[in-house]
Amino acid sequence: xxxxxxxxxxxxxxxxxxxxxxxxxxxxxxxxxxxxxxxxxxxxxxxxxxxxxxxxxxxxxxxxxxxxxxxxxxxxxxxxxxxxxxxxxxxxxxxxxxxxxxxxxxxxxxxxxxxxxxxxxxxxxxxxxxxxxxxxxxxxxxxxxxxxxxxxxxxxxxxxxxxxxxxxxxxxxxxxxxxxxxxxxxxxxxxxxxxxxxxxxxxxxxxxxxxxxxxxxxxxxxxxxxxxxxxxxxxxxxxxxxxxxxxxxxxxxxxxxxxxxxxxxxxxxxxxxxxxxxxxxxxxxxxxxxxxxxxxxxxxxxxxxxxxxxxxxxxxxxxxxxxxxxxxxxxxxxxxxxxxxxxxxxxxxxxxxxxxxxxxxxxxxxxx
Length: 368
Fold this sequence. Notes:
The chain is an alpha/beta fold. The chain is 33% helix and 24% strand. The protein has helices spanning 6-9, 45-58, 73-84, 99-108, 121-132, 157-169, 189-201, 221-237, 285-292, 308-317, 351-357, and strands spanning 17-18, 24-32, 35-39, 62-66, 92-95, 114-118, 138-142, 148-151, 181-185, 239-242, 246-247, 252-253, 256-259, 276-282, 297-298, 300-304, 322-325, 341-342, 345-346, 359-367. The strands form 5 sheets. Strands 10-13-14-9-8-16-17 form a 7-stranded mixed sheet, with helices on both faces. Strand 16 (300-304), helix 10 (308-317) and strand 17 (322-325) form a beta-alpha-beta unit. The relative contact order is 0.15.
């Protein structure tokens, strides 16, 4: 059974009223910006299209969407369906092309009043600068991640192992919230690592259109070279426990595991965006929390434990926009805020939050 849609959620948009000013009845109005923009990534183009265009329209705006130059066809096809559905011309508009041309135009355009972007932190900074130098757009960013998963000795490993492996293997690791860092308590580390390697490495590489394939290629040669570079550097700062092999002809990198990686290593601090995970060991809660928070990213974090008090302490202490307790990404909730701390983003998306992003607030004062 499907959940609520943005169209249905639009009826929940509310203002407020106040009688706190003597002699006045004051109310707020929620009004559309007019023209808004969306810039979406290549890794989940259909999901990103829907998550930005639908709330923009439900809030009453016209939207200009720029697709990734690596995945332009999905947006064009959906736009054809939108025309067939009877939307008036000019309500939904699609741009293709490279970010430094098409994206930069939207970021600096004076008629665009709000802009929602999903992509890299580097590009987010460029959009922020362009907006500041134009009309100070309302900006919503969902940027990079370096998500940690913390596995305590009382965790249910039958759940923790397959879920943490799936998180980094899903979409060949090309997901911003993938748990690319796993911290395991020392007493269970050998058992967890062996089980993780067995689960993570059990894949069938090949053509993603083949139903038998369980682990597809990276997006293109640029992405493959980037991930390959991190793997090469990872061998210098940690122990290669699984994988590392690259097939240039098919752009596939086998699921790769590093252990005992130096905490200040680039591969443990920067987003790799591939099927590469670092598993390190901790002894105490304090150590686990410190290591988990020791990056500039904060999109998703997970903790596996049967101790409810500990789970609550970590839910509060983790510097992350989303925390999974005995679950990890890609587990989310469409009606809850989605977004990150620190350089993982600005603002939140989600059923109600996305509608709020595309609505202005206006105060109206009625003298009685």
